[in-house]
Amino acid sequence: MSKSDDRKLAALVKKNAAKVAKAKQPKRRKYDSTLAPEVEEDLERRKFFSEMKKREF
Questions:
Q1: Which are the contacts of 28, defined by CB distance < 8 A and separation ≥ 6?
Q2: Region label for 39, one of left (φ > 0), alpha (ψ between -120 and 50) or beta (otherwise)
Q3: Which end is more exposed in the chain, N or C (fewer Cβ atoms within 10 Å of the end residue's Cβ)?
Q4: Mean pLDDT of the region 26-34
Q5: Residue 11 pLDDT level (bands cut at 50, 70, 90)
Q6: Full DSSP string of 1-57
Q7: Cα–Cα distance measured from residue 30 to residue 16, given in angstroms and rounded to the nearest whole number
């Protein structure tokens, strides 16, 4: 690979890493500013119930 290819590849890796980091951040509920901030327990519960919605019984 040439140096320009290495630079392009490094830029692409950096761009994709930023996308992944942004995607992993939990999305906050924005509709009510009076709600208490979510704690880890709430996030786990939300994840659990979203998985249960996908299943068929």
A1: 37, 38
A2: beta
A3: C
A4: 66
A5: very high
A6: --HHHHHHHHHHHHHHHHHHHHHHSPPPP-S-TTSPPP-HHHHHHHHHHHHHHH---
A7: 26
